[in-house]
Amino acid sequence: MASKSKRKADVAEVTKVQFDTAVKVYEDNSRSLLDVNAQMQAEMEAIRKKYADQIQNLEQVQGAQFDVIKNFALANKDSLFSEKKKSMVVGQVVMGLRKDTPSVKLLTGKTWEDVIKALKNTKPDLIRTVEEVNKAEVIAKRDELAADLKSLGMKIQQNEKFFITLNDKKETPAAEPSAETAKA
């Protein structure tokens, strides 16, 4: 009982007039936000269209120059880079070589199933096995598991969250608040 009385104390006292005013202001504000965002999107789209050709041309030139620089650097890799120094500065550009993150790939003609079979026989510690609770199945079977959940160390929890959405219809009467929130 103590938690219920504490919970009610956290909710501020609001009159019906305050509630109606807040709903109207919230609705008007929401519609204004939608209008401003739509206008902003339209203006940004116009700006994108205005500069699209210029950006495309610059990207094409940059792509072609990247290829020239890369081809030169790779052709002269030994003279430009060393084991210790994998980058260099030329003007305002830093260029160099980076190693990718290591990854495991299959040999031609092999499948992951082939690899797993081979590893089971020779290096079983390289095979990962993941065990986890199938939470979706627990939720689906919550009625039949209800008696066992506590002994299994679980509980089903479903929180209630307050929400407000803007109704698409402009002429909708305001919802009546419950008896607890309506204080005249």
Would you count the extended β strands for me? Answer: 2
Number of helices: 7
Shape: flat
Report strand %: under 5%
Instruction: Detail the poorly predicted runs.
Output: 1-6, 179-184
Mean pLDDT: 87
The biggest sheet, with number of strands, parallel, antiparallel or mixed sense and barrel status, is:
2 strands, antiparallel
Radius of gyration, taken over Cα atoms and rounded to an integer in Å: 32 Å
Helix content: 40-55%
Distance between the termini: 27 Å
Task: Give the topology.
Layout: H1 2-10, H2 16-75, H3 77-80, E1 87-90, E2 93-96, H4 112-122, H5 135-140, H6 142-145, H7 149-152
Antiparallel strand pairs: 1-2
Please tell me about this protein's structure.
- The chain has 184 residues and is mainly alpha-helical.
- It has a domain at 12-93 and 110-150.
- The chain has 7 helices and 2 strands.
- The chain has helices spanning 2-10, 16-75, 77-80, 112-122, 135-140, 142-145, 149-152, and strands at 87-90, 93-96.
- Strand 1 (87-90) and strand 2 (93-96) form a beta hairpin.
- The radius of gyration is 32 Å and the shape is flat.
- The protein starts with a helix and ends in a 32-residue tail after the last helix.
